[in-house]
Amino acid sequence: MSSPTAAVATLNRKVSKSGDDSLLPDLDEDLMSSYVYDSTDQEQAVDATPNVVVEQGQQSYGDTDKRKLKGFVQAAQKLQGDKDQKLQSCIASIQTLLSEGFNPIIWCRYIATANYVADALKQKLEKKGSQIRVIAITGELSEDEREIRLQELKSYPQRVLVATDCLSEGVNLQSHFSAVIHYDLPWNPNRLEQREGRIDRYGQTATKVKTLLLYGSDNPVDGAVLDVLIRKAVQIHKTLGITVPVPMDSTTVSEAVFKSLFDRAHDAVQLSLLDLLDEKESAVEQVHKNWDKAVEREKVSRTRFAQRSIKPVEVEQELIESDQILGNEQDAERFVLSAANRLSCSLSKKKQGWLLSTIPNFLQPALGDKPRLFTFTTPAPEGVEYVGRNHPLVEGLARHIIEDALSNSQDPIAARCGFTTTDTVTKRTTLLLLRLRHLLNSPKHQSLLAEECAVVGFTGAPSNPIWLTPENAKSLLEQANPVGDAPLAIKQAEIEDLLSKITELESDLELFARERSHSLSQSHRRVRAITQEGQIQVKPQLPMDILGVYILQPEKFVVRNFLDNF
């Protein structure tokens, strides 16, 4: 029922199979389930046609049965193309979506079906001069091949992706696709959520996301799944505003549908929805009862935890502190632009973002060698790639700069020691880049080790430092620009003198680490009070690592110091 091509691929194997009538081997139930049931417990579904299931069903067929099978194959072959109403409905829907400005994904159950649909769409849409590109991505491709094909597809102004559920989890597609067609009706409503969740999520720039579901009106199995399962899932979503997954494993749900079909009718074609529902305590009703209980538990949970009663002001400070530690959009932009400038990358400002026309060699494994248009604010415009702190561009630049700083002692891109003459300060100021470690202990969970970086600064000598606030120290590190220079000998002498006295700061730095751990502990306490979770202890792990030392020197002092030495 997926497609004529999938039927032919499966039945042909049986027709051509020869064998004896020896006893059947023991069936591998787990293997059979992975081909037949639509499990959402595993990230990637098996999308190969179930040849092995059919082959293990019977060792061999007689001549009469083989002739019947050949007749089935021939009938399926005749349905391909123009006579395939499911395919033609899909093509018409795709053309409508493209004309409305949508870029759709078509989800299929099997590899054979996905390739069949993609080939038909290519013939229809990829005409000479067309800007539309159609690509199929299935489980027969490696993960690297899937990524390459996906990147190729994203470069086209209008695009259609035909995919199996090998892409339904773990891949973000919201930046380049805005519509979904379920070509094959999933036998588990949870699969619908997974598929649509690839595009209906944060980062989607389209104001409207469309989803379409194809099913056979004369297919009793499709009708049962749609009416008994999927429409119930939709109704639950409308009532609660969230999705409540079916609280039973995929095997049980599918078997309930099978049982309701074959127990109630000799002729499945004449089966109606009323036949399914009027049976006392049917298998489907058992699924519904368990599902309704899950809905009630969710209602109680939402009342107990009262997420809607949480006031934004209560968590605002925690979000601000998270941004300070992890970096926000402005931090990511400042870092990328500064790093690109130091590396002489061709990053140029455009109307919708920044164009990286030439990808440096060390970034090509992650970004490829084609020009990329970036933006540092979300949501990103269509065709522009959003760069956050976890984007491969940021990670690649950071990794390259750190490796260079640790290995290049002559002319590093970013040095661990610095002496800057600047008009940002009026007094000699020393900044330290620190790496702190905290041990998080909880009686309910395993201990965790957390790391963070912080900037501290002081004026005066290390023996009697006057400490800046962390906010001022961080601001100076970001904003101090050189306005002059000092002789190399003076810079080296100043840095060496500071490093020789760095141990005089140990007690103050240890106090800072303990204060920081206490602050984190209080933050955890506030959040856990809202969520009603157990408390944890935060302990600093000493000593801290000093990753960098930077001296900021007023310009006038440097000139006078140099003249006095002269």
Word description of this protein:
By secondary structure, the chain is an alpha/beta fold. It has four domains: 4-78, no CATH class; 81-305, P-loop containing nucleotide triphosphate hydrolases (Rossmann fold), CATH 3.40.50; 322-407, Dihydrodipicolinate Reductase, domain 2; 417-565, no CATH class. The chain is 47% helix and 16% strand. The protein contains 20 helices and 16 strands. It has helices spanning 4-15, 29-36, 51-55, 63-78, 85-99, 111-125, 143-154, 189-196, 220-240, 250-264, 273-277, 283-305, 312-326, 329-342, 364-367, 392-407, 470-479, 488-500, 506-531, 555-565, and strands at 104-108, 132-137, 158-164, 179-182, 210-213, 347-349, 354-356, 372-375, 385-386, 417-422, 429-441, 448-459, 466-467, 482-484, 537-540, 545-554. Strands 10, 11, 12, 13, 14, 15 and 16 form a seven-stranded mixed sheet that branches. A five-stranded parallel sheet has the order 2-3-1-4-5, sandwiched between helices. Strand 2, helix 7 (143-154) and strand 3 (158-164) form a beta-alpha-beta unit. The longest helix has 26 residues, at 506-531. The protein is elongated, with a radius of gyration of 32 Å.
